[in-house]
């Protein structure tokens, strides 16, 4: 596989994403492969333009300008899945949900839930460590107007599918927003989960448990931590805390319990 100037393996097509994701055996390799992905021309152009033009307040910083991989340990029993990186957040810092107000919300909440070592995430190397949770996005490149197309969502989907498959203890997925909710169901179907029909509608606090080849997996819906929701009070800290507390309770099986892994 060809590598780019930073040493990341380059993927250029949707078929290449599916192939590369399927052949990945650990999270570090997956993170590198995601970081070198160029399969969505519109998003590649946008993320790189933003990284050059920059926001005035960050003009002295080097933007990441690449897809943003997930964060958190491979033994996580909880996954948090958001929409996509922000142009001047994750696309700037190179860490999911880091560098904008959405990240301030989710990492503070993860800290309150006992899943993060500190309440802030400002940049790679700031000392943040996550415990028992992996944070990722349904689409890994910053989209114009925070709006990926359905085609871009589907192209990026194998990265998410593989990331969840590489979490052998996974029991709970907290889904932030309707976009991630929609993106997750085909991933679960592809992994062999028996899904209810019709698909349960997204909503804050919605809880659905599905049975898969490796055991049950519970999906918890939460309104997204976007400023549109947090500034208006549609999503409050107690509302988010309640969802994460529920995730912690659901994941609270003893460490030697049988894992509910997504299959290869
Ligand atoms: S959105 Fe996903 S599939 Fe598309 S270029 Fe970015 S990482 Fe690749």
Total count of domains = 1
What is the annotated CATH architecture? 3-Layer(aba) Sandwich
Task: Provide the residue-averaged pLDDT.
Answer: 95
CATH fold assignment: Uracil-DNA Glycosylase, subunit E
Task: Characterize the largest beta sheet: strand count, sense, and whether it forms a barrel.
Answer: 5 strands, mixed
Classified in CATH, the superfamily is Uracil-DNA glycosylase-like domain
Name of the CATH first level:
Alpha Beta
| SSE succession | HHHEHHEHEHEEHH
Order of strands in the sheet with most strands: 2-1-3-5-4
Principal-axes geometry comes out as globular
Tell me about this structure.
The chain is globular, with a radius of gyration of 17 Å. The chain has helices at 14-22, 27-35, 41-53, 90-93, 101-112, 150-165, 178-190, 227-230, 237-250; strands spanning 78-82, 133-137, 172-176, 207-212, 215-222. Helix 1 (14-22) runs parallel beside helix 6, helix 5 packs across helix 9 and helix 6 packs across helix 7. With 264 residues, it is an alpha/beta fold. The protein has a single domain, classed as Uracil-DNA Glycosylase, subunit E (3-Layer(aba) Sandwich), CATH 3.40.470. The protein has a five-stranded mixed beta sheet with strand order 2-1-3-5-4, with helices on both faces. Bound molecules: iron/sulfur cluster. Iron/sulfur cluster binds next to helix 3 and helix 6. Iron/sulfur cluster binds at residues 17, 34, 37-40, 43-44, 67, 139-141, 152, 155-156, 159.
């Amino acid at each position: 596989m060809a590598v780019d100037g930073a040493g990341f393996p380059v993927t250029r097509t949707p078929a290449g994403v599916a192939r590369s994701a399927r052949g990945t055996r650990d999270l570090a390799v997956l993170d590198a492969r995601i970081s070198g992905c160029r399969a969505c021309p519109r998003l590649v152009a946008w993320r790189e333009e933003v990284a050059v033009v920059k926001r005035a307040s960050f003009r002295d910083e080097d933007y990441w300008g690449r897809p943003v991989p997930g964060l958190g340990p491979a033994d996580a029993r909880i996954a948090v899945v958001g929409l996509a990186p922000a142009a001047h957040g994750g696309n700037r810092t190179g860490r999911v949900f880091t560098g904008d107000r959405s990240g301030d919300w989710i990492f503070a909440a993860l800290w309150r839930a006992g899943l993060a070592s500190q309440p802030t995430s400002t940049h790679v190397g700031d000392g943040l460590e996550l415990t028992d949770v992996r944070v990722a996005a349904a689409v890994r490149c910053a989209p114009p107007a925070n709006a990926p197309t359905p085609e871009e969502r589907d192209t990026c989907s194998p990265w998410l599918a593989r990331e969840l498959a590489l979490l052998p203890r996974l029991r709970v997925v907290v889904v932030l927003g309707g976009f991630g909710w929609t993106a997750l169901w085909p991933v679960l179907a592809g992994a062999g989960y028996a899904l209810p029909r019709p698909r349960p509608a997204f909503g804050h606090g919605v809880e659905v448990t599905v049975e898969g080849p490796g055991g049950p997996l519970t999906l918890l819906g939460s309104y997204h931590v976007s400023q549109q929701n947090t500034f208006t009070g549609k999503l409050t800290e107690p509302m988010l805390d309640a969802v994460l507390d529920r995730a912690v309770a659901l994941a609270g099986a003893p460490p030697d319990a049988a894992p509910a892994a997504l299959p290869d």
